[in-house]
Amino acid sequence: MPVSPNGLSSELLEELAALAAEKVRGEGLRLMGEGGLLPEPAQHLMQAALEAEMDEHLAAGAGRVGGRGSRSGGNMRNGYRAKKVMTEVGAVTVQVPRDRLGTFRPRMLPVYARRTGALDDLVISLTGKGLTSGEIVSHLAQTYGMTTTKETISTITDKALESMAEWRTRPLDPVYPVIFIDAVHVKIRDGHVANRPIYVAVAVTADGYREILGLWAGNGGEGAKYWQTVLTEIKNRGVRDVLMLVCDGLSALPDAVNTVWPQTVVQTCVVHLIRASLRYASRRDWAEVARDLKPVYTAVNEEEARQRLADFDATWGKRYPSIAGTWQRAWSEFVPFLGLPDAIRQVVYTTNAIESLNARYRRAAQACGHFPNEQAALKRLYLATLALDPTGRGRQRWNNRWKSALNEFDVLFDGRLTAGRV
């Protein structure tokens, strides 16, 4: 019998086409949910698969090919029990065959299963894209005709906790040119609702891709011991060397970096410095303030940068005196940036890959309002990571001029990047 590329017989496809035509002539074509086209063939396919599993089970018990209704080694069929199953095309009811000895355990539909794995994957995907449990319940009801609860959705997404634990301990590359440490603030109820940071470590790989190394919950007052624990965890996953670590305003982090990777250069994030500056300025002046700050971080050396900052303060100091002070307080962590070749400056300064990630995380967090605990917040952001990339690495090309940056990194850091990859 001819079959289609997906394994369905031409006869079955013709029957589905005829059924679709009949529905179009009647109440209109609906694919999924109650009254849809797909639940009925899905039910028949599942029923056929259950019958085949029972035949295989009885035959294995008898040591010979068995058939429906045959007695096999003292075992035989013993009626059916109805079971309603939620599938990705809607709710279907199947008749699960039973055997006399009660030893039949269908692989396709385990004893206590009320959903197919594909439906669970759909719920996890929708959660990762930012839908709340209530929105998913509504979506399943409207699209698939399913009645479910927020608690069920939470139970399904809890399945991701095991894979999240594996993701947070997976092996990493031996060397990274740059690692960025950034924070997304979420609301967590711990006695009372409060803003808490979730720190994300994002690396640029030696091949020029973004890789999300992990997520860690903080309380906003992290000290050197906390950061040493986080960095040691990353090191224990195989990271022997990091050329540069870029962060923003995390005062205890540089000391921890020097303890874990003594040769790593700690650089303050220029984009965050600009943002911190704009917080002191009226929104109507943001474009001009940002324009006048650009000569500071594009200066050829530290001396020129100081002069450009003085020029900026002469122009804006009376109106916004705190901006120059913001740069001066961060000067020791900003200065390394001025000694970088232009190709590396583009890698360190251009943070579009991080900004797009943070925007996705913020949407996912804000949709929930607040989380009952740290684990729920971490789970939500992990699922958002999977929505970007099923591997959880969040791979995205960093920029289009990576090869020139790669060569500059290897020269500037005495071949550590090439040596670390061997």
Automatic annotation (TrEMBL):
Keyword field contains Transit peptide: no
Keywords: DNA recombination, DNA-binding, Transposable element, Transposition
Residue ranges of coiled coil: none
InterPro entries the UniProt entry points to: Transposase_mutator
Domain of life where this protein originates: Bacteria
Entry's family note: Belongs to the transposase mutator family.
Biological role stated in the UniProt entry: Required for the transposition of the insertion element.
Protein name: Mutator family transposase
